[in-house]
Amino acid sequence: MPSYTDYYNCKPPPLLERLFQKSSPEHQDQDLKKCLNIFDLTVQGVAHIAGTSIFILTPEVVKLIAGPGTVVSYLISAFVLFFTVLAYMDLGARYRGIGNAYVYVYSALGEFAAGLVGTFMMTEIALTLALYSVGFGQNLDRYVMGGYAHRLQVKYAGTFLPDYLAENVNLMAIALIVVCCVINCIGVKQVAITNIISISYVILADIMYCILSLIYGSNNTFAHSTDPYTGRGGVFPYGAAGVVAGAAITVVAFNGFETTVSLSAEAKNSKRDVPLAVALSFAISTTIYVSVTLAIVYLVPWYSLDESTGMPASLDAHGLTVPKYILIGAIMLAGFSIALCSLTTIARGLMVFSNDGLILSCLSLVADCSQVPVVAIVTASALTIIFTIIFSFKVLIHMVSGGALLTFSAVCYTLIVISYSKQKEVVDESSGLVQNEVDNRSLTTSEAQVTPGYVHNQEWKIVGWMASFCTIATLCIVLIYGPKSWSFWKIRLPIMMALGFINILILSYIKLIYHIQPQRDPGFVCPGIPFVPATGITLNLALFSALDSAAHLMTIAYIIIGIFIYFGYGYFHSTITLSKRKELELASVSEQDEPDQ
After folding, report:
1. Which of 189, 432, 484, 524 has its CA 20 to 30 A from that of 236?
2. Cβ atoms within 10 Å of 91's Cβ, excluding its own
3. Each residue's pLDDT tens digit, 360-400
4. Confidence class of residue 10 from pLDDT cuts 50, 70 and 90?
5. What is the Cβ-side half-sphere exposure of residue 116, based on CA atoms within 13 angstroms?
6. Residues 6+ apart with CB under 8 A from 491
7. pTM of the predicted model, to two decimals?
8. Using the 8-state DSSP alphabet, how is residue 63 labeled?
């Protein structure tokens, strides 16, 4: 039998082994300052989730997609993401390093899947930041500068850019990104303090708006408004399809879990604080979204809502000038706050990507003075500025949900695999707490036998079963929409019920045959594994299917970009691969130095 060294002959591992090699997240917190408490983490989450989406995204959905039914759209989004929130809470409690979907997938599904998910996550957040930065710039120019900035930028940008790009150039958006870049480079605590001030004002302005809606609005406005031009009216003017389409778009409004878990490495007690902060920020944000959306459609007829002037115009319709300007101030601060949070998240994501060797190593550099990844922050800022120039606001709003939903599905999938993987204990030197990490070694038969309830190669068997589950769930979702020649009630629905029953059998088999691996002092543990995360996977895929073709095409583009980045750079520079090469070379040299027997 050839030796390990003879088999590999000091060359990279075979393709499949390279694609599925795993990394532990325990090294991802290097040199970052632990200074955030549960209040800081919660504010960061609320600032990202419920910052400016309520002002920019909601009027668009109300006017064009779901009408007053947008309230139900937000509730559906919250219900779908509840299962994903539980997964993030569990994973956030497990890992002491920087947490995000990329890190979790890398530790459970391997390098190639992590590269794709990392591309989804980073591009999605950068596009979201571009969307809200452009919205901030448009609102600032509209309400404060009277359109002067837009006229100026079109005039001068047209001298060196094509007309379609010159129209997109938004000087105020670019200025916002630059200011947020500077604050992020100063330090993460400064970001937290700035967000506390900003989001406090925003929440107070939201409360004011809801109170004014109760005073000046009416139930007749909410329930019986009819668009005189289209004849659409009632609570659901666009029907159930509009409500579902609205839910598929508003899900991006909750895309802030990554902000909280990405700060795990900078939390004083990540095991306790991160899951609580995720839960609190989700609950607070859902309450804000539902309350303010209800207030909007209660205050003015949904069809009269101008998606460009939004909530301030609804106050102006009742002659409420002072509250209008208070709300405009909240819109400005909300845009500023979410830009800060998004940039923080992207920078931490790029940092761990770089630490693992899947992108340029310089992006992991941490400044000694502020202990933040300055190169990653500047790079993320530059990327976002490019997005604000290339894509208009109308295009961006349809590009930011697909990747998020697939990322959420991947996180739920990862939790199931990790829960059935062998655990090892790592002591966090800063807090003294025991952290549970996935043991990424391939267990020998003897080790598997002495591990309670462990089946040899259990985690890879779980990966296979869950891949079958996702395939069947996708087929069920496809059958919802067609083929149209098949009767829904007589053909498609019975097939969907049969496939759903097979999926229930798969989950039951996993639950009965395999055993969740125990953790010491686990912190928060998601209940109902594998059923709860599997429900999250199914619901996220269902919402993804409800997106328009532009979002689906953008998701395909994410996959192509991810494959290109991985095989163009990460495949050759992966930290794990380079480490294996070094070990093989040392082993080869050692064998050559041994005297002949």
Report:
1. 484
2. 31
3. 888 878 777 777 788 888 888 888 888 887 777 767 766 77
4. very low
5. 17
6. none
7. 0.81
8. I
Local structure of residue 233 (DSSP, 8 states):
B
Tokens read off for 320: 């409420």
Phi, psi of 434, rounded to the nearest 5 degrees: -80, 125
3-state secondary structure of 42: helix
Which run of H or E residues covers position 418?
Answer: helix 402-419
Our measurement of the distance from residue 265's CA atom to the centroid of its chain's CA atoms, rounded to an integer in Å, reads: 18
Q: What is the pLDDT of residues 221-244, one digit of tens each?
A: 777 778 788 888 888 888 888 888
Mean pLDDT of 84-106: 83
**Region label for 411, one of left (φ > 0), alpha (ψ between -120 and 50) or beta (otherwise):** alpha
Residue recorded with tokens 């790029």: 350
DSSP per-residue letters across 301-337: -GGG--TTTHHHHHHHTTT-HHHHHHHHHHHHHHHHH
Q: Which amino acid is at 237?
A: P
Percent of the residues in the chain that have a pLDDT greater than 90, as a whole number: 9
Helices and strands (H and E) in the chain: how many: 27, 2
Find, among 66, 44, 46, the residue nearest to 293 by Cα.
Answer: 66
65's tokens: 């997609």
Burial of 132 (0-12, 13-18, 19+ CB in 10 A): buried
Q: Which residue has the tokens 């300055």?
A: 374
Enter the tokens of residue 50.
């419920």
